[in-house]
# Entry
Amino acid sequence: METGSRLAALSLLLSAAVLSPCVCVISPLQINPLVYEEQLLWVSGAQGQVNTYRIPLLTFTPKGSLLAFSEGRKSTSGDVGAKFIAMRRSTDKGSTWSPTVFIVDDGMKPDGLNLGAVVVDEEVGSVILIYAICFHQYLCTPASTMMVESRDDGINWTPPRNLSVQLGVKNFAPGPGFGIQKRYSPAKGRLVVCGHGTLEGDGVFCILSDDHGRNWYNGAALKSIPYNQRKRAQDFNPDECQPVEMMDGSIVINVRNQNNYHCRCRVVVSSHDGGLSLPVDDLYFDYALVDPVVAAGALQKDGVLYFTNPSNENHRVNLTLRWSLTNGSSWVNKAAQIWAGPSGYSCITSLVSGSAEDRKYIFVIYEKGHKDYDETVSFAKIHLYGGQ
# Structure
């Protein structure tokens, strides 16, 4: 009889655990990330017409599918040359993936295309990809900012549209990473895509759209010093960047410090007017985020700011996840190593569904190798509380 009573009590406790909404609440103080699953999405030199896959992007669609993008560099591993934009799609949160499709082919342009930023418009259910062509202008001209769009969950894409008619002809390399749709005031609903210029005319530049990508205009600019002049070591040269929107409506942009101005660390700058300006008063150097001069990932999820990069002052190795409970003003004094070896660019995303299960995970795509960081592009599902 006593055994039966204990079983009944245990059954009641298990039922309460399943049904009680309180059990689902996990404090950010409990974050202890664990790489839960990982798989290679692309292997350089192993898939037909592509020499090297680089510049990975990752996003969820409004319908909850995962889209992964990369540059398929046709004949060389370098930034200049003909390319595809490669894509794979997952409808089960990254457990399985579609075969690779090439959604953009630049033909055999000698200066090729350059990814790029993906931005999701939740209000109309579209996914927009912004990229550059002839960015370096070594072998073709003029440079142009291009856009393709999908309104059916990444299955079909529009023909490329040249935005230079609206933005002017300029060297603008979006991202690499994601653009944002403002969730909070000011400028709620605005699309914001930030990127950089050529090394001489470098800086952080943002383009904006208030009508779901039909029309674009130039927004904030944080220019390098000296501007439009050949750079020297330790000149101020902000470069590739990742914007995130904070819960107060500000946009925080984490920036590659191209010439190691002031430190071998990241530059951080903020906009408080929806991407129209980037005041120098709101710029600082984040000494905690040591960096070997690389594109990095950033994401704000449930009030926690996440950051990924190869955490090393001199070499692209040791891809590391860090997190901040104070909007980036300080970082928790521990980190999660995703990959110890050669690692390069990264991008982070998460599914914002409101469910307790989806609050547990973030997803990282990154360049990964054993000898060189551009050997593969890998996808990692990370359980934020899995290391408990």
About this structure: The radius of gyration is 21 Å.
